Amino acid sequence: MTAPQPTTETSLRRNRDFNILWAGQVVSQLGGRIAGVALPLLVLATTGSPAKAGVVGFAGTIPLLVLTLPAGVVADRWDRKRTMIACDAIRCVAYAALVLAIAIGRLPFAEIVVVALINGTGTVFFGIAERAALRSVVAEHQLPSALAQNEARDSVSLLGGPALGGALYGLARLAPFVFNAASFLVSVLSLFFVRARFQEDRARPESRRLPHEILTGLAWFWRQPFVRTTALLVTGSDFVLNALYLVVIVLARQKGASSAMVGVMFVFLGVGGLLGSWAAPYLARRLTTRTVVVTTMAAVAGLLPLLLIAPDAIAIGAVYGAMFLLHPTWGSTVGAYRLALTPDHMQGRVASIVWLLSFGSVPLGFLAVGFVLADVGTTPTVLGLTGIMLVVSLCAFTSRSVRAAPRRLYRSVLPHDEHVLEVLAGAAPGPPVDVTAEPLVEP
Fold first, then answer.
1. What pLDDT score was predicted for residue 428?
2. Which pLDDT value is given to residue 259?
3. Does the structure show a pLDDT above 90 at 179?
4. Of 394, 345, 414, whose CA–CA distance to 141 is shortest?
5. If 0-12 CB within 10 Å is exposed, 13-18 middle and 19+ buried, where does residue 400 land?
6. CA atoms of 176 and 305, how far apart (whole Å)
7. Of 216, 190, 218, 179, which is closest to residue 84 (Cα–Cα)?
């Protein structure tokens, strides 16, 4: 029997499946943040080598670069729920094995590397499958609110995870990893209680060759000007925002901030995300799509120079956190557009492309800004990043596909509305479409 799918009459607060999935992932992401802080501490404590801590970090992030696109194919061709259950079950076992090794006092460095690699791989496959499944778990009009709640989930884990990770590690070396293993178990159990199917019925694909499947996804993505343009804008902004992570640490240190104060400074990232998530449904109902796209990019460009005149670490953190205030609104509009426009059998591949464009800039941003800071200092670096964001903002402002987007996210911007899809795909010329019936956002 087919599990019941969400209906447009159900509010998000009463969407049982989404709330179960969301609650499980709150716990799981918190565990991930806790382990993310504790794992390098464990490496340094057991090996005393910063280089080996770097190797573990590399092992945990390399799947983002090499497995993201294949993960999109898996999410489109395999059962998404089973994929997610398998990912978190394997990660639960991996961290349980790590806990056992710590408890008996036999922890080879190679095991830590393997655990980091397993965790990074699971993060990629689980994350892509979850994003691809969202449209099957919530009704179309719930997408903006669901995406805003997922942003809030991320902010909560960012706000509490690092501090809790350090505290648990200080309490007992294995404590943070026990919590993380348990969090993956909670995630697995929550998935078993979700009744909704995570994909539509699919016809047998013409080809199961991985390169062909990836190229098919890339071709579809490239033919959608709005999806393509907004994803490329995020690539530019994420490059800057991730590069700033090191810049603000250096700036805070120059202002005399202690290591503890630097940690407090980054609390503002979670605060900014939470405030933005609270405001996102309201803003998504009232701002046009173009306003959201342009303002999100321009806000980062406008706030960047303020870092140079911020008097202390708290002010620096507040400015940095403010750059994330509109990101949940972006997710509630642009992210919901992408989910609504993308056919179910392409959701995984499109999500993987967007994810790769976003996260692929992280290592490049850290690498580039490190050399620039060493050569020219903080002020020219901040001004250079400001210049990049000004270019990104100008591209957003002048983009034809952004101008052609419907003013707001409406229920009619779904696969059955061929005219709107043709406008967004560039096949139908004309002024921006202003659909004024049946808002896709909950009132």
1. 31
2. 61
3. yes
4. 414
5. exposed
6. 38
7. 190
What is the distance, to the nearest Å, from the Cα of residue 216 to the centroid of all Cα atoms in its chain?
23
Whole-prediction pTM? 0.75
**Residue 410, strand partner residues:** 439
CB contact at 8 A, 152 and 273: yes
Tens-digit pLDDT profile for residues 218-263: 998 998 889 899 999 999 998 898 888 778 878 888 888 776 677 6
Domain ranges of the chain: 11-200, 210-428
The residue to which tokens 């706000």 are assigned: 159
* Assigned token pair, 294: 């342009």
Is 338 within 8 Å of 225 (Cβ atoms)?
no
Q: Residue 277 above 80 pLDDT? A: yes
Residue appearing with tokens 């709107």 = 420
Cross-strand pairs, 439: 410
- Judge whether 120 and 62 are in contact, CB under 8 Å: yes
- The rounded Cα 435 to chain-centroid distance in angstroms is 29
CATH of domain 11-200: 1.20.1250.20
3-state secondary structure of 440: coil
pLDDT range class, residue 203, cuts 50, 70, 90: low
Query: Could you give the 3-state DSSP secondary structure of residue 252?
Result: helix
Cβ atoms of residues 285 and 329 within 8 Å:
no
* 210-428 and 11-200 share a CATH fold: yes
* pLDDT of 386: 95
Number of residues written out for the chain? 443
Contact between 15 and 142 (Cβ < 8 Å): yes
Amino acid at 234: V
Buried (b) or exposed (e) across 267-293, using 16+ Cβ within 10 A? bbbbbbbbbbbebbbebbbebbbbebb
Which homologous superfamily is 210-428 in? MFS general substrate transporter like domains (1.20.1250.20)
Distance CA 280, CA 329 (A): 4
Closest CA to 409 of 289, 315, 319: 289
Tokens 């700036």 sit at which residue? 251
